[in-house]
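During the no-cost extension, the postdoctoral fellow (Dr. R.K.) reprocessed legacy sequence entries with the updated structure-token encoder. One reprocessed record is reproduced below for audit purposes.
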Amino acid sequence: MPSNEPPFAFRPRHAASTVLDLRGGVRLAVDGVQAALRGLEATHQRLADLEPPVQRLRPGRPDRGWPALVYRSLHGTADLVGGGLDLVLASLQAWLQDPHRAPEPAGPRRGRDAAVAALNALVGDHLHRTDNPLAMRLDLRVEGVRLPHVLLLVHDLGVSDLQWRQGEHDLGAALAATLGCTAVYARYNTGRHVWATGRELAAELEQRLGSWPVPVQSLALLGHGLGGLVLRSALHQAVRSGMAWPALLRKAVFLGTPHAGAHPGRALDLLTSGGLGAKAPLVLARLAERRSDGVDDFLLGRWLEQDVAATPASPMPDPWPPGADAYAIAGSVGGGLDDGLVPVASALGRDLVSGQDLQLPDAHRWTATGVDHLGLLRSQAVFDTVRQWMAA
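Re-encoded structure tokens follow.
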């Protein structure tokens, strides 16, 4: 039966979101041009100071005379062009966001979402510092009726809250349905330092649970990869700040979390090839040579602010609040030493340097044989194990 729907329906609100993305892309491009110019100036300076000079010819210093004028002009032109494009796009965005327009059906755009999540993993710290519209902000998405039992899910590096759904299987939704709890999905910029995201998450969770429409009786945490480090940081900072929500914690489960770090080359290869999300553009693969704060934290297992200047990462102070139990699951493929990204010992928090062990009993550690890092989200055996632990 032929559809009455037009082949293309113009949606101003969606178009405005696309324009906002373009504004972020323009700003990032201008930042790249300015960085390239600074690099060129630095090279020019080294040539000016070189002894002996090349073929007895010494170029003028880049901060004096006509070279300085040229560089100032180039920097100014880049800012002028970038600012002009931003003004034009901002005007178009404002027109598209006219509040008098009829409301449109909302819904996630998975392709766009995955690409932005990958970009945030690679340069999210820069996007945040420059207030770029492409920087992902921390948000908690609540699914279903607000029940007294809450399950918070925190995603991995280079993906978003939508990545808990793998094909037809959503690990969070499935657990919420079987355990009788409300799933809350965190969304955040994975390129920022873990401790910075953890601090924001702790504060946001305190506010959300404090205004929950029914009294919260229990809280469970589930973190995949980098998300596990974020949860550890949020819990520690919440306890240190005297927040109320840690007293509600009953279960915390870590899936493939790099408590002692991950394989550097493999993490960047997976990120830039789309192994952790959507296929990243080739330009992002080049940007991967400059590692973000979040990528560094993932590779080194860092989760506290003081860890940024320390090696190795700090031990967990008083790991779990009274009444809370923690569990760890590792994936194991190939030779059985890792999940293709995170070593088994790292994911289980075992055999770490002195003082860093997660202090988990053996019954709270489990290895999913034949399951890789991303496969932890779609494995039936993993689901069954997590459900059993959380229901206990």
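Residues 55 and 109 are 58 Å apart (CA to CA). The two ends are 51 Å apart (CA to CA). The remaining legacy entries will be reprocessed before the final report is submitted.
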